[in-house]
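From the shared-data thread, chain only:
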Amino acid sequence: MARMDSLAGKQQRLHAVLRDLGRVAVAFSGGVDSAVVAHAAHAVLGADALAITADSPSVARAELDDARRIAAVIGIAHRIVATHEFDSADYERNDGTRCYYCKDELYGRIQSLPELDGYVVVSGANVDDAGDYRPGLSAAAKHRVRHPLQEAGLTKAEVRELAKQSGLDVWDKPASPCLSSRIAPGVPATADRTARIEAAEKILKEMGLRECRVRLHEGELARIEVPADALVQLAECHQRLDELLRGLGFRYVTLDLGGFRSGSLNELITLETRRKYTPETAT
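Structure, as tokens:
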């Protein structure tokens, strides 16, 4: 029998957690974490597992298409649900707590679907998410969302390894938070801004950059983050890039010499807010 602290043992634990839940609705972005949960849920629950993907102006069209594709590869029943977080003044205010209102809207929307009565909503949060700044986990607690990866003790690296072993081609997919996460705290989150960010990042990806962020700051300033080894590439075409992004409505275009850093805008969130939404232990 596999030791429970081994990867195989943790996978067994993951399956056991899902089996005990009976019927689950997986909050499914199509990223590696939710893909592993969906794959495991489909394996142990079959038709009693459903993947739910949010569709809103904060979701890039490419990510939505990828979620459809991955769900089809897994074989799990998949549903796209429109969410309306942009209708919330609390969300639009973007004071560092925006993610809470996004997840509150998503989980509430899933739980309000009459056909999902009796289903348990599960997320793709892993062990590494505990102790990090995660307002969405507070919303999950409010809605009694379960986190099977955390309950199984799986880290991000282990989740990627499970995805690879399962033949899921997203195993090495870079993290892709929602488009609103690119908007600096204090700058209102609007559909117009997320559309411009999506278009700007599409330009960068068409240049061959797999990991990139276009952060939007006050004054409609676009701050581009790319891996350090791509800085020279962008510097060499800076005039064309400036023209393209200004054409999208950005007033200023800058290249961050610090390179790509996931979650860099969290540095602008007040310490009080960060402490409030940083869980000390896995839920």
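Residues 179-261 form a domain with the Histidine-containing Protein; Chain: A; fold (CATH 3.30.1340).
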